[in-house]
Amino acid sequence: xxxxxxxxxxxxxxxxxxxxxxxxxxxxxxxxxxxxxxxxxxxxxxxxxxxxxxxxxxxxxxxxxxxxxxxxxxxxxxxxxxxxxxxxxxxxxxxxxxxxxxxxxxxxxxxxxxxxxxxxxxxxxxxxxxxxxxxxxxxxxxxxxxxxxxxxxxxxxxxxxxxxxxxxxxxxxxxxxxxxxxxxxxxxxxxxxxxxxxxxxxxxxxxxxxxxxxxxxxxxxxxxxxxxxxxxxxxxxxxxxxxxxxxxxxxxxxxxxxxxxxxxxxxxxxxxxxxxxxxxxxxxxxxxxxxxxxxxxxxxxxxxxxxxxxxxxxxxxxxxxxxxxxxxxxxxxxxxxxxxxxxxxxxxxxxxxxxxxxxxxxxxxxxxxxxxxxxxxxxxxxxxxxxxxxxxxxxxxxxxxxxxxxxxxxxxxxxxxxxxxxxxxxxxxxxxxxxxxxxxxxxxxxxxxx
Amino acid sequence: xxxxxxxxxxxxxxxxxxxxxxxxxxxxxxxxxxxxxxxxxxxxxxxxxxxxxxxxxxxxxxxxxxxxxxxxxxxxxxxxxxxxxxxxxxxxxxxxxxxxxxxxxxxxxxxxxxxxxxxxxxxxxxxxxxx
Lengths: 450, 131
Description:
heterodimer; A: alpha/beta; Aspartate Aminotransferase, domain 2; Aspartate Aminotransferase, domain 1; 7-stranded mixed β-sheet; 4-stranded antiparallel β-sheet; 15 strands; 34% helix; B: alpha+beta; 3-stranded antiparallel β-sheet; 4 helices; 21% helix; 34% strand
């Protein structure tokens, strides 16, 4: 799509047609005190200065061996992914205006939705969200709207959900009177004990179930799902998409399956890049479709009976529903979605399962090597996917610093959010880590702890 | 020119109300409203048992490019909804005062329909809008 700049003459002509003196006058209805810019946002910089700044910042990204997961994962990204994604035809973060004129973009989003619905075992996927954390916030809002049996604004939130997600979601829903009530985990397993759930939780809109949870551990999703449905609560699944290639899909959890599924799309072909941009995904069962936020692309036929793609169910969205829209979100991280779609298409179901299997095997091998060291032990028993919590015999902060000096990013320290775990470290080894990498970590840790 | 049956009562937000004579009323959207919305693709109805105050949003009628709330004209509780609309939202377009009814309300105690518009008054509302 060509970039068409406006000349001053174009602008003057348009303004004179609508009878307005200046572009600024179009914003007159916004109160003056809100038009003054945002505190802390600096003045613009020229290209030369920005390039210099970005190069300096990029150089600060460590080239170390990465054993940190905690929500963002260092997976291999085939070179073709970003080669194709950055083609001019795809290179946009948004659905273009007059979306149906860009059939290629819409088809890609449609394929993405199909893949995500398949991966999560749900009937519907939207065209994406901002990131995993905000997707959880939107899922909470959606659950409160969609649960018509309940008028409750309470949501049960296990403490095994990523703490950053919980904090972000709370900011999103807090002003709407929705509360998250924590569910504690079993200190032996690091998962929600489905046997000790409250017998009478009262009126609850939804239960959030992470899989795998923040500790990498596998929740008893079937029992939790059935329990929630017995209470009249909906189930919001927060899942790692790579894990979905090998674990049972939320659509088949328990007797009825989850109601809403969300999560972080970064593992599917998006580089770590210092924390973003990433994207979120969101799927649901068809009966909740009208409460789903975000855009939806559908396949239809044109006047001549040929396949075509179109935005659909737009009456949920803000340009039609205004203040009663399901969300203020449109397309958002469309370019990331493009990359993920190409990533999934290149890998296929078997390829993604191989990534998941290798990441799991590597993490197991890493855990075995590290727990062979004196004083290093797993914090929890039970099954895990590609991440596990280790207890260290020395302060985790010091250990991580010493490992970093040896070129190793040793994991995520948990003391801030989980002080009860003591000197605990969350470690992960994706398919990119070789046996030699694991040995190098084990040797470095042995040296640091000696 | 839209149809405005004389035996019904109306609101300025384009709902019609029919007194069933047994303490319940049936309500829907007017012919004028369905015409303005265009072909409906979905109707969202309240749960049976839901308590509504006059003016509460109780249903949503949705066409391809518009969605409108339907407001309870009077205080009452939902005793029945037109479940056929789930499969056939087009009934609202085809027969807004018949097969396209939306909700049956049991009137709250002491509530009558006297404050609602009669056909002539509603006719004036529609004409004013069309000008």
